[in-house]
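Request:
Um, any thoughts?
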Amino acid sequence: MSSRKLLAPGVLLCLSLAATPKNADRTRAFHQSIPNSNRVVHALNRLTFGPRPGDVARVQAIGLKKWMDLQLHPERIPENPLLTEKLQALDSLFMTSEQMVDNYPPPQMVRRMLAGRLPFPTDPDRRMMIQKLVDRFERRQKQGDQAPAPEQEVSGLLTPEQLRSLRTGTPAERLAAFQALPSSAQDDVLLVLPQGIRQGMYAAASPELRRKIELTAGPQQVVALDLTEGKLLRAIYSERQLQEILTDFWFNHFNVYLDKGADRFLVTAYERDVIRPHVFGKFRDLLEATAKSPAMLFYLDNWQSVGPKPAPGGRLGKNRSGLNENYGRELMELHTLGVDGGYTQQDVTEVARCFTGWTINRPDLGGAFTFNPRMHDTGEKTVLGVKIPANGGVEDGEKVLDILARRPATARFISRKLAIRFVADDPPPALVDRMAQTFLKTGGDLREVMRTMLGSKEFWSAGAYRSKMKSPLELVASAVRAGNGNVDYASALVNQVAQMGEPLYRKQEPTGYSNSGKDWINSAGLLARMNFALNLANNKVPGVAVDAAKAAEPGDSAAGVPLGSPEFQRH
């Protein structure tokens, strides 16, 4: 596939987005069904991260209705063993938050290890690498201005010929030069090599050596890298595609910012244990799971929220500054009712009072949720007209969740967000109403709300078909899937998503990333998309190999559609 073939459609994309159908045309389009021949393609575009070569034929063989039912029941779908294998190298994905702090400690934890107040990691290789990092840091601190420059450290350990090979060789040649060093010296050399040289052999390195290279940039950075790479790998390889899409959807709905303090170690478990298991369950269960998650409690500062005065025997403590309304406000505005959901500022305050005492046991060590009655406001509260009696405890907050989960405004707000993600940026109100009715009738059963949407005429209409712009995550994952890509490591793909405007897990505002396609249209993002398509098609994205010819196999949805074209970027 030539660069010219990719680039020209990419330029046309900017022009094609200018034509927006009028309201009357959009309304008519939602009453016009797409041909049966397009239904499988439409389902694959909306319910997966994009079709792979052969997916259309596979769905047709199973039957579209049965395939969709399987996606609604991911526990019935065997997971891709290749995905399982690739995720194993990202070991922090399978650790508790406490284990992550132990194995990939932040600087303050390392200082405690040095002082003997905390043990070093039990894994021998990781322990040795962290110990060497610490030793080097201490040595340079003692030497002060007399500490050798990095270039001097390198030259003291390597011959000019060895250094030249590491600087100028191909990844394989650099790796060979590194492996030719005595094994006892390799870790010391790795620590003093400039970052560019270390990364220069990354592509050819084994998973074990890659992990050591990653550790040299700081142990806690590994946790974020594993998390973001894992998201791309799941999007590309998982057979449970709808579950992965909904995991991304609900993470953004209940957004937590990865780079806020202790959340660096809390977000992995938040997505794994709180979001993913609940995406087809009851909304009320998901709501409580997020409310009691240490990641959410830390992100919105509720873990420090206390009543107007301590309970008998309690005290505020140096970091307890009083009532914090952050979570109460976002709970109603973003998580349940919506900004026009009928609540007042007084309701925000009353909700915040109900959640005092919902805190974390040692967040810096990856601690768990706990309720501290000494921090709780035990007075009577009134939330949305409902009285919550005095002298309550953790059940005050649980009652608030009950109230909010049952409100019609919540049913409509959640239903509309799902319809925006899966149907159209401006979904038909009649569809949203039917989804909201299902939500209320089933007690917030999210699988049944999805089933109502997928069984609607609006979902299968011309108004929905290829009407949405892909987010950066969707575009990158779908392009690799369309090209039958093999991902050796996903860090370069993570960087591509960030360059397009969606750094994963790093949306600082509690709104999360947008579900509306039009929010992803800007000149910088479009240019980044075109550059990515060119690099991917020419196999210039590190760690990824695609077969561009297979993206144009006859009978597939990608047939004849270049990766940078408007048709490819819409779904």
Observations:
- Residues 195 and 516 are 38 Å apart (CA to CA).
- The first strand starts at residue 358 and ends at 360.
- Strands lie at 358-360, 369-371, 381-383, 386-388, 486-487, 544-545.
